[in-house]
Amino acid sequence: MNLQRIINKVCAQPLLTNTKNVFSILSIRLKHDKNDLEEHKKKVMARGLPEKKPLPGVKSIILVASGKGGVGKTTTAVNLACAMKVIEPDKEIGLLDADVFGPSVPLMMNISGEPMLNDNHLIEPLLNYGVKCMSMGLLVSGENAVVWRGLMVMQALDRLTRHVAWGPLDCLVVDTPPGTGDTHLSLAQNLPIDGAIVVTTPQSAALQVTKRGVNMFEKLKVPIVGLVENMSHAICSNCGTKNFIFGNETKKTANEMGLDIIESFEVDANMSECINSGKPAIYALPDSIHAEKYRRLANRVFKYIADKDIQHAKAKEQ
């Protein structure tokens, strides 16, 4: 019903004696029409969104994300995947590098070479440390820049997810690019994501963007496992004193968002060597505090997945 017809209808009612009554009823009618419009938009959007389809043979998918770059997100994803394999050797674990423009997983996992196609014309992921890996960095040469528009990125993501022989996998860890962009939207709309781990550092700049990332996942209805804090502090090599060189605001921010800090990692110069050598800390430094914390993080993720499976089973029974 257009505005002129509403006005004509309202003004034709005999009980209206003044302009105030006219606009009072007009306001009610317009509000009603606005609500109808919003409901109509929701229905249209629901029809337009792609159907979430699981990856064949993949039981669970965990995203590792960060609002800001340079906070150790890929380091967390790599060591989490490897730690999950270490503490549960019988579990099949995969690692997807979804950062199309800046893939780092091949370096950190020490994998290279062009993947092969199997008889089903699916890409066979490369295997190292017992973890199945796939990255755009394996499909383009190391020195070539990927300069693509959004649609091409989405097509690349589709190829890295649905055209790879991932199964059987108990858990696929997905290293996402920093920020809140097309990649996260595409993954959340196309795949049944079990949860997201958000990585941050204590700096105000990183925490501010972390809030945006958390808000994005809430809008996309992706549950958040918790926050991982990197570079929380540095320990003096002489006296052992903790120095919070980047501030100490992560706990406050986590409380404001209603999230748990599920693990916190201090600055360690040895981590840089692990990254450059392509040997994750969980293997290079198995007795270090970092390796112990990655194992704890892996246990936490396994428990999160198990609890979620129990909830799904109970929901089906009802």
From TrEMBL:
Matches recorded under SUPFAM superfamilies: P-loop containing nucleoside triphosphate hydrolases
InterPro entries: Mrp/NBP35_ATP-bd, NUBPL-like, P-loop_NTPase, YlxH/NBP35
UniProt keyword Transferase present: no
BP terms from Gene Ontology: iron-sulfur cluster assembly; mitochondrial respiratory chain complex I assembly
Any one Gene Ontology molecular-function term assigned to this protein's record: 4 iron, 4 sulfur cluster binding
Cited Pfam families: ParA
Alphabetic keyword roster: 4Fe-4S, ATP-binding, Iron, Iron-sulfur, Metal-binding, Nucleotide-binding
Keyword hit for Metal-binding: yes
Coiled coil: none
Record family assignment: Belongs to the Mrp/NBP35 ATP-binding proteins family.
Name of the protein described by the UniProt record: Iron-sulfur protein NUBPL
Biological source species: Papilio xuthus (Asian swallowtail butterfly)
Lineage summary: Eukaryota, Metazoa, Ecdysozoa, Arthropoda, Hexapoda
